[in-house]
Amino acid sequence: MSFFDVLKAFWETAKNVLPIVIFLCIFRLIVLRKPIEEIKTLALGTLLSIIGLHLFLKGISLSLIPLGDSVGRDLVVLNNKYLIAIFAFVVGFFATMVEPGLKSLALEVEEISTGAIPMNVLINAVGIGFGLGMSIGIVKILNNIPTKTILFPVLLLAMILGYFAPREFVDIAIDSASATTGPVNIPLNMAIALGLSKILETSDPLLNGFGIIGLTSMGAVISVLALGILSRI
Q1: Entry's InterPro entries (predicted)?
Q2: What is the pLDDT of residues 55-83, one digit of tens each?
Q3: How many domains does the chain fold into?
Q4: To bridge 145 with a disulfide, which of 20, 69, 109, 140 should be the other Cys (CB 3.0-4.6 Å)?
């Protein structure tokens, strides 16, 4: 790859970052009529963000995505749906443990609740829910079950739990679901699901490979709501 190709690749990333930075600067100067402080720091931070985002996306495309896809394709070797479901739970659980967005959310929840909702308890609850959602998604692929067949009962369960759970846990559950869709979970788990769906003769990757991230997020919602009900009991 030539030097110009490298610059072109970085520019593609910069085009996604610079517009929001420029918009915020213009909004602050013209609408809010406030000066931009630490311009040098802002410029350096923007540059580092572009470089970091580019390297991260490049690394993901070279590591987690192809690895997850190859593992998904080879899961059929186990020839045991229960083992595959357990594997999916373990991957979903531990991938959730390293999500920085979830840790930030859990830290804020612990601080705002003055320790009433410990960070580790919330993280593990979300991890369990995400892992269960991942297992359900993989079982859906293995048995060629339509997503809507699983989604409707899951949504109904979430609504019932949301009715009985404390108000604060309902809000935290929604945010927890969003926090799980981070830079580790999405590429890894989706790659595994698509890899498995591609190798199964009875499965259509377009119909069954996608939707798994939504199911895992709903699993996180349900687990946090269940935690809220348990804390009330």
Answers
A1: UmpAB
A2: 888 888 888 889 888 998 898 888 888 99
A3: 2
A4: 140
